[in-house]
Amino acid sequence: MTRLLVLLAAVLALVGWTGASDAQEPLRVDVTQGNLDPMPIAVPDFVGASDEALRRGADITRVVANDLASSGLFAPVDQDAFIEDIANIDLRPRFSDWRVINASALLVGSVTIQEDGRLVVGFRLWDTRLEEQLLGLQYRTAPENWRRVAHRLADAVYERLTGETGYFNTRIVYVSEGRGIDGEPIRQLALMDQDGANPSFLTDRSYMALLPNYSPSAQEITYVSFLDGQATTYLYNLETGRQEALFASGGAGAASQVDPEGQSLSARFSPDGSELAVSIETRSGHDIHLFDLRTRNLQRLTQHPADDVEPSFAPDGERIVFSSARGGGSQLYVMNRDGSDVQRVTFGSGRYTTPVWSPRGDLIAFTKQIGNQFALGVVRADGSGIERILYEGYFVDTPAWSPNGRVLLFTRGESRTNGTRYEIWSVDLAGFNLRRLATGGMASDPAWSPLIE
Predict the structure, then answer these.
(1) What pTM did the predictor assign?
(2) Which pLDDT tens digit goes with each residue over 274-323?
(3) Residue 78: CB partners within 8 Å, gap ≥ 6?
(4) For burial by CB atoms within 10 Å, which of 83, 101, 212, 365 has the most?
């Protein structure tokens, strides 16, 4: 896997046009509201000078429209309703034709295939009420990167109309679940684009793999492997395929205290990618440690008789949230990165687990179990205010934030006559737009990559 999946030789602003001004506000999606009507946007097939360019233009249009629709903030208008046939994106559209079909925004584009095979993809985003161009960009790329260009284009439209960074040019690593020939459970790491395209396996069926987490560079993941017969944290380089088992017992410093038969679980990267926060089983139980990826030094942060597990860094790298039963049932706690100033942030009934700090820094996502009921929720990072429940169901686990902190992925289990079926679903921060990811089979433990540059 190359470091840069999309090589953009040029990003050029197109000439902007401004229509007649009036008293209307500029087109904008207010993402601070809860449930809102999605903005109607028309996305005609991108134009081209050859059959191949037209086919690629239709492909890009489909990906962009699907990305925008999946956010729940946009509603692509049915192409059968279109009145004007866009033939040249450098001509002003007939805005009345788009307003009559209730399209608030219009995205037009073109694809040119150069002699060397490279693609030039240009587009213009229009406000049909103000008759004003909102955005105009041009991308140049190798033909195999057309999907990356489509996702970047959707991200550009999303950011222009919401004011927030998009999340479409990303990938998701997860656990593909199945059964072996004797009915034994199979759990493999798998990777796909955020829209389900380009799926592939990272590990084989000979051992279990669980709980992947992305590095800030999107080039490495940590995960828990049972390759050596016990739960061990591995570091996996996605570019080279090289894997490394971490935290071997009997080493120097804190590693000398690692239980030879113990487990290491759910390691998460620091925001700068230089350290891992990880729960390791020592002779006194599970505690939170910091592992320096450069020096290989292991530093113990917690020393409590209760098990401390599931650490996750704040985006500023200064604090860590974790779950612990030190107060009785499992609750969430926040501490400084050196282990000092431990503060409890959840106080409700039930077991609070799987905390993940939002990329925005203000919230912590968690899962909660009361009896046989599970819930996915968020709480303020300082513990103030009331927790908000985004989803409740038969089984909920392993939340993962989108890079912009607007959407959460999670594992959802559904009771069936032949056992529980696990799938990955998404929900937005307001608790709306519940969607199932297209993983092609049972899946769990999602981890969302940063934006791919």
Answers:
(1) 0.91
(2) 999 999 987 778 999 999 999 988 899 999 999 999 999 999 999 999 99
(3) none
(4) 212
409 vs 435: CA distance, rounded Å: 9
CB count in 10 Å sphere of residue 201: 12
Which sign does the torsion angle of CA 314, 317, 318, 324 carry? positive
Angle, CA 59 vertex, CA 54 and CA 62 arms, to 5° = 125
Mean pLDDT of 212-240: 92
Give the integer Cα–Cα distance in Å for 90 and 449.
36
Q: Cα-atom radius of gyration of the chain, to the nearest Å? A: 24
234 vs 237, 283, 417, CA distance in Å? 10, 21, 35
Q: What would the two tokens of residue 38 be?
A: 């999605």
User: Hey, is 369 helix, strand or coil?
Assistant: strand
Per the CB < 8 A criterion, the answer to whether 61 and 69 are in contact is no
d(CA 172, CA 449): 6
User: What is the rounded average pLDDT of the residues 251-256?
Assistant: 57
Distance CA(45)–CA(54), nearest Å, equals: 8
The tokens of 253 are what? 């410093």
pLDDT digit string, tens, across residues 439-452: 989 999 999 999 99
Give the pLDDT score at 254: 59
Please give the Cα distance from 233 to 426 (Å, whole number): 26
**Residue for token digits 């295939």?**
113
Exposure letters 331-370 (e unless 16+ CB within 10 A, then b):
bbbbbebebeebeebbeeebebbbbbbbbeeebbbbbbbe
- What distance in Å separates the CA atoms of residue 307 and residue 324, rounded to the nearest whole number? 6
Q: List the structure tokens of 205.
A: 């069926």
Give the type of residue at 312: S
**134-158 pLDDT tens trace:** 999 999 999 999 999 999 999 999 9
Question: Which whole-number Å values give the CA distances from 281 to 126, 140, 193, in the listed order?
Answer: 57, 50, 34
